[in-house]
Amino acid sequence: MGNNSFAPGSRNPQCFVVQNITTEPKTIMIFNYPINPGCTRDLLRIPGVAEDDIRSALLKGEIKHKLLTGDITVICSDIDLLQFNTTQLAFLQGAGIVNGLQIGYEELDGYVQNIIEQGGGGGGGITPQEHETLRQLIHFIDSGGPGDGFASGAYRVMLPTGSPFPTNITWYLSSAMTQKLVEKQIIYDTHKFPYIITWYMYDYDGVTIVHTVTDTITYDAAFESTRFRTIG
Questions:
Q1: Which terminus of the chain has a smaller tally of CB atoms within 10 A, N or C?
Q2: Distance (Å, rounded) from C-alpha 220 to C-alpha 61?
């Protein structure tokens, strides 16, 4: 690994700080740089080290190994780790990493706000009312269900009933199931991995679809590698 500050995947450094917590104090090496007992090092400050290098080392390299053996703990991380699957994210959370694991509500809302500003109220833009309904849809995606701003009593139905691979998940206003709030449709590939996920946000009548968000996912073996999102 060379001293290249423009390494592929690098960007303005944020933080990925680890601490040497070895029980039998010893100096450890990460990316060929020493970390003395009890000391910390921001791996993003190592010349030539980029986020991609850290992600790879967390997935199957030396950082993962040192976390599993209890040699280090992560005390600061805000790099993008969205491509990790559920099991890997649980491992990262257990290692003390809390940021970068999902797209935040505010981040997506900012993206939607850019749509409004770039559209300028003409073709391609959305109205403030449409923006509000899209914000609600983003809230559902981020939280997994209705929360702030929604009345209690919402009711979820998963179909097919009892299937480990549901293709339709719908939140209704109530157990009467007369008004849909949001609907999620899933298409699986031959390995039973979800590769197209579409969310539908419904208007107040519970029938009219006002916005959709579609994710198209690709995999590298059993691990998610990319996700392309369209908002409409």
A1: C
A2: 17
